[in-house]
Design goal:
506 residues; alpha+beta; 23 strands
C-alpha cells in the first residue's frame, strides 16, 4: 500500500498514472474510474476512513473548492455553479466513504494497510479474494468526478461524503444539519441500474452476551474441529430474500444434533459484520471416544441435508478433523443453552410488504457468534420498513436470549425512508433515464438501509432519490460492479445535473 502521506504532493494531473490499475485501463468514463482506482488504493473500512477523506479533501482544495467537516468526520465539498447556471437550486451529491471489509479465509490481506487488488472479469470489475468496495466507492468516485469536471453545465453542488455508514449509518446519524444547505439530494448508493429507489428500510442491532459454565474435558473424550465454508454470504438487506444459507445458523444446528452423541461445545466462531450474511463458521466439539464413528456419520448426514435444503449453495463445504482436546469445555447444560439460543434466533425474511409487491418488509440477520474467555457474544441485525415490526423483531431476539440466560443490548434503530411518488427529483430522474436509456426505469424501494432516511429526518424538506450501477454480492468477496452500467449511471447523473441547471426542477 502506498504511503497516504505522499498524496498531498501529487498533482491532479498525476493521479491517473499513479493510481490507475491495469484492470481499469481504457474504461469509460475515465475520470470516474480514475477516482475509483484512488479510492481502492487507500484503506477505508468502517471507522478507518480518515486517510481517504483527507486525500479527497486535498484534491478538492487543490482545485480551489471550499471543504467543510463536522465533528462526526463527514465532509461537504462546495462546488460553485458553472457560468450561466447561478440561479439553479443546490444539488447534494451524497455517498459514504467506508466499505465492508470481507475476505476469504485463505486470502492473506490486511484491510488496514493493503490496497484492494482490482480484477477485470469480462464485463465486471471485482477484487482478488476480498470485498471490492464498489459499495460505495463508485458513488464517491462519481460525485468527485462530477464536482471536478470543467465540462458539465450545472448549478451549485454540494458533495456530501459521510463516514461509517456500514456499521449503522453513524456518520449520517451524527451529521450536523448546518453542513448541508441544499434540499435536493442524489444518493449514489443503489445497486440496480434499471431502478430508481424512492424508499428504504430502517434497521436496528441487538448484541447478546451469554456466559458459559466451563469444565474440564473427560479423560475418555475426543475433540472434533468442524469447518463450514464456501457459502455465498452477501448483503443482509439486499440479498436476504434469496434464502442464502447462514453459516452461524447451520453450524449451531449441526452441533446441536451432535448432542445425541454426547457432543459438548468447546469453541464457536462464525460471522463478522452485522450487515453481511455469515459465509463461514468453525466449532470445536468434545464427545465420548466410543461415539466418534457415529458422530462422523451424523455429520455427513447433516451435510447432505444442508445441501438438499440449500441446493443453490453449490460451493458449500463441511469438514471434520480430529484434534487435541481443548483445555476447557462448556458444561452440558451451558452448551445446550448456547446452541438452542443460536438455533432459535431468527434469520431471513420475516414478512413481505403488503404495499410494494416483491419487497421484503421485515427481516433479521444472525450476523456473528464468537466464544472468547468463556463468553458467547452474538450480534444480530434486523430491518423493516415498519418501525413497529422492527421493534418486534428486536424484542423477539431479546426474549430468546433471556430464556437462554443471556443479556442483551438493543441499539437505537435508525429510521427508514418513506416513498414519495410525487417527488420533483423523481420526475427529473425518470425523464433523464428515459432519454439516455430509451426506456422507463422501475420505481422501487430497497430493504437495505440508506442514509436518505436519516438525512431526511435531520434536514427537513429534503427531496431525495437514490440510484447507481449494477453491483452484485455486496459485502462479500464475490462483490462485483458491471462496467457498462457504470457508464450509464454516469450519463444519468450528468444528465440530471444538466436538466436541473436548465430549470427542469422549477
Amino acid at each position: 500500500m502506498r504511503d497516504c502521506i505522499s498524496f498531498a504532493s501529487v498533482s491532479a494531473s498525476a493521479h491517473r498514472e499513479m493510481f490507475m490499475s491495469e484492470a481499469l485501463q481504457g474504461l469509460s468514463p475515465e475520470p470516474l474510474w480514475n477516482f475509483f482506482a484512488q479510492i481502492s488504493a487507500i484503506p477505508h473500512g468502517s471507522k478507518n476512513e480518515a486517510a481517504l477523506g483527507a486525500h479527497l479533501r486535498r484534491i478538492a482544495e487543490g482545485a480551489g473548492l471550499a471543504v467543510r467537516q463536522d465533528n462526526a468526520g463527514n465532509l461537504c465539498i462546495n462546488v460553485p455553479p458553472t457560468p450561466g447556471c447561478e440561479k439553479a437550486p443546490i444539488v447534494v451529491l451524497q455517498a459514504h466513504l467506508d466499505m465492508v471489509c470481507e475476505k476469504n479465509a485463505t486470502v492473506s490481506f490486511d484491510f488496514a494497510r493493503d490496497a484492494i487488488r482490482l480484477v477485470r472479469d469480462g464485463d465486471w470489475i471485482k477484487a482478488d479474494g476480498t470485498s471490492l468496495g464498489a459499495d460505495n466507492g463508485i458513488g464517491v468516485a462519481a460525485a468527485m468526478a462530477a464536482a471536478l469536471s470543467k465540462e458539465i453545465p450545472r448549478g451549485p453542488v454540494e458533495v456530501l461524503l459521510t463516514v461509517d455508514e456500514e456499521t449503522g449509518l453513524t456518520g449520517a446519524v451524527n451529521l450536523s444539519p448546518s453542513l448541508v444547505r441544499g434540499r435536493i439530494l442524489l444518493n449514489l448508493d443503489s445497486e440496480k441500474s434499471d431502478c430508481l429507489c424512492i424508499g428504504c428500510a430502517g434497521g436496528g442491532e441487538v448484541g447478546v452476551l451469554l456466559p458459559l459454565t466451563l469444565t474440564d474435558p473427560p479423560a475418555s473424550s475426543v475433540a472434533l474441529r468442524l469447518k463450514l465454508t464456501g457459502l455465498r454470504g452477501g448483503h443482509s438487506g439486499l440479498d436476504i430474500h434469496e434464502n442464502r444459507a447462514n453459516a452461524v445458523s447451520l453450524m449451531a444446528r449441526l452441533v446441536l444434533a451432535l448432542q445425541e452423541h454426547g457432543g459438548v461445545l468447546a469453541d464457536f466462531q462464525g460471522g463478522d459484520k452485522h450487515n453481511a450474511i455469515p459465509r463461514e463458521s468453525f466449532a470445536t466439539v468434545a464427545l465420548p471416544a466410543a461415539r466418534l464413528n457415529a458422530a462422523r456419520e451424523g455429520i455427513a448426514a447433516r451435510y447432505r441435508a444442508f445441501m438438499a435444503e440449500f441446493a443453490h449453495e453449490t460451493t458449500m463445504k463441511l469438514s471434520c478433523e480430529k484434534i487435541a482436546q481443548p483445555a476447557r469445555l462448556a458444561s452440558g447444560a451451558s452448551s445446550a443453552a448456547a446452541l438452542h439460543m443460536l438455533a432459535a434466533f431468527p434469520h431471513g425474511v420475516l414478512a413481505m410488504s403488503r404495499h410494494v409487491p416483491g419487497l421484503v418488509e421485515t427481516s433479521s440477520n444472525l450476523a456473528a457468534a464468537h466464544i472468547r474467555n468463556g463468553l458467547l457474544t452474538v450480534h444480530t441485525m434486523s430491518r423493516s420498513s415498519l418501525p413497529q415490526a422492527l421493534h418486534s423483531a428486536m424484542e423477539q431476539i431479546a426474549s430468546i436470549s433471556s430464556l437462554a440466560g443471556g443479556t442483551c443490548a438493543m441499539g437505537t434503530p435508525y429510521p427508514g425512508w418513506h416513498p414519495n411518488p410525487h417527488s420533483k427529483i423523481l420526475s427529473v430522474l425518470e425523464k433523464t433515464y428515459e432519454e439516455i436509456c430509451g426506456r422507463k426505469p422501475e420505481r422501487t424501494a430497497t430493504h437495505a438501509g440508506l442514509e436518505c432516511g436519516v438525512i431526511g429526518e435531520k434536514c427537513a424538506g429534503m427531496d431525495m432519490i437514490s440510484f447507481g450501477p449494477d453491483i452484485i454480492n455486496a459485502h462479500s468477496p464475490d462483490e462485483a460492479v458491471n462496467i457498462k452500467s457504470v457508464a450509464a449511471f454516469w450519463n444519468i447523473l450528468i444528465g440530471a445535473l444538466r436538466r436541473i441547471a436548465a430549470g427542469a426542477y422549477a
